[in-house]
Specification:
This is Tyrosine aminotransferase. With 480 residues, the chain is α/β, with parallel strands linked by helices. It is built from 15 helices and 18 strands.
Length: 480
């Protein structure tokens, strides 16, 4: 044995069942049997850890101290993690007018006001899952096989078939997005993110050392992608294209033809797509919303979804990744990578997994239709009311739960930007809309249309009153 080896030590656990660390030859320390009874002739009774030098002598291991005073600092990942919405909202001076009750049009949670409860069949499915007592333990990190098959059956179609092995269950759609970015990207890579777009993409990517490149959506074209701008951003380090359809924050729904144009760009540049489809099927009558995977067999797609929005249960934290890879471009490596990453938190809620079959099979179409009808009605109320307010330019949505409103800042010289505008709207009128700077898109604000109808009407009245107070004609208009 070399002198270099003689200086090594090994940690040996004694628990009556043997030494739990291999000796140098795998059978014991100093050539003796690793049976937990004797090391170098010394009896070691009871459980515990003992440091054993390769020559058999026992001694307490002592590592050199790295520092002489306390110095505990957050990691680079923690320091690099920033939610743009929180960064903006936390810095706002949000003090509502005490004479007017607060109307919060800023929170993307359909349950806040209690006017959009989930269906009784959804609740019953969860109760049945609890009562069965089959789902109280750990599930596999990717989800129960039966539950994954239920999701696969629900979303499978002839154009994009799915099986259980193509599904990974996650703790909400946000974890699904996290896993997809993590498996496709390395530090130094870049991803393409819609602008305006959901702020979580940037939060996750930047924390991992991944550059975010924003591609423009065009409000004058109902928020379609500026395809030329998108393509100009692609380089050799671009590892993923994120497409959100229907859109948060825009409420837009891409046509089949436009989705095909996006897929054509991805195919040309061999770029996998992360399709955030959490609002799939939450589209207004007259619109259709095919999945991206149903329109292409050549582009590999990771589609992210969940229960949160369509079934109105965001707190249940159930999401999924659908792996569409009919040409085997991802191969086993990406699938195995997703499995490994899923093992970091040991999977999604087992109780909700047990309820998926009942939720998917028993929820009546009338529940979905009622939700969509309400969202469309509220969107029309908001759009029609604000369309006649000087200085505002709302864009009518086609789905999801949101409506974006442009602010002609030239007509509101008292305010520096959309953050200043929305902050004063709270102070004066107790109406809280989210400034679109939180979505990297200044001079707009986002309205959530899930509030009760009477509250939506009242909010629009107050916004009109606010704009009339601060609106100023341009100097050229005064000359006329």
């Amino acid at each position: 044995m070399s002198s270099r080896m003689d200086n090594k030590s090994y940690v040996v656990q004694m628990n009556g069942n043997g030494v739990h660390s291999k000796g140098l030859n795998g059978t014991g320390v100093n050539g003796k049997s690793a049976n937990g009874q004797s090391v170098n002739g010394k009896s070691l009774n009871g459980k515990g850890f003992h440091h054993v030098n390769v020559n058999g002598s026992l001694y307490p291991a002592k590592a050199k101290s790295r520092r002489h005073m306390w110095e505990v600092k957050p990691s680079e990942m923690a320091n690099n993690t920033l939610n743009p919405i929180r960064a903006i909202v936390d810095g706002m001076k949000i003090t509502p007018n005490p004479e007017k009750p607060m109307i919060a049009l800023s929170i993307g949670d359909p349950t806040v006001f209690g006017n959009l409860p989930t269906d009784e069949t959804v609740l019953q499915a969860l109760k049945d899952s609890i009562d069965s007592q089959k789902y109280n333990g750990y599930a596999p990190s990717v989800g129960y096989l039966k539950s994954r098959q239920v999701v696969a059956n629900f979303y499978s179609c002839p154009e994009a078939p799915l099986d259980a092995e193509d599904v990974i269950l996650t703790s909400g759609c946000s974890q699904a997005i996290d896993l997809c970015i993590s498996v496709l990207c390395n530090p130094g890579d870049n991803i393409l993110v819609p602008c305006p777009g959901f702020s979580l993409y940037k939060t996750l990517a930047v924390s991992m050392g991944i550059e975010v490149k924003l591609y423009n959506l065009l409000p004058e074209k109902s928020w379609e992608v500026d395809l030329q701008h998108l393509e100009s951003l692609i380089d050799e380090r671009t590892s993923c294209l994120i497409v959100t359809n229907p859109s948060n924050p825009c409420g837009s729904v891409f046509t089949k033809e436009h989705l095909q144009q996006i897929l054509k760009v991805a195919s040309k540049h061999c770029l996998p797509i992360l399709a955030d489809e959490i609002y799939s099927d939450m589209v207004f009558p007259g619109c259709s919303c095919p999945s991206m995977a149903s329109l292409s067999s050549s582009v590999p797609i990771l589609s992210c979804g969940g229960l949160a929005k369509r079934w109105l249960v965001p707190g249940w934290r159930m999401g999924w990744i659908l792996i569409h890879d009919r040409n085997d471009i991802f191969g086993p490596e990406i699938r195995q990578g997703l499995v490994k990453l899923s093992q970091r938190i040991l999977g999604a809620c087992s109780i909700v997994q047990g309820a998926l079959e009942g939720i998917f099979n028993n929820t009546p179409p009338s529940f979905y239709n009622s939700t969509i009808s309400f969202l469309k009605s509220n969107s029309e109320i908001c759009f029609n009311e604000l369309s006649t307010v000087p200085g505002l330019n709302p864009v009518m949505p086609s789905g999801a739960m949101y409506l974006m409103v442009g602010i002609d800042m030239d007509h509101f010289p008292e305010f520096k930007n959309d953050v200043d505008f929305t902050e004063r709207l709270v102070i004066d009128q107790s109406v809280f809309c989210l400034p679109a700077s939180a979505f990297e898109y200044p001079n707009f604000f986002r309205i959530v249309v899930t509030v009760p109808e009477e509250m939506m009407v009242e909010a629009c009245v107050r916004i009109r009153e606010f704009c009339q107070r601060y609106y100023r004609p341009r100097s050229c208009e005064l000359d006329q």
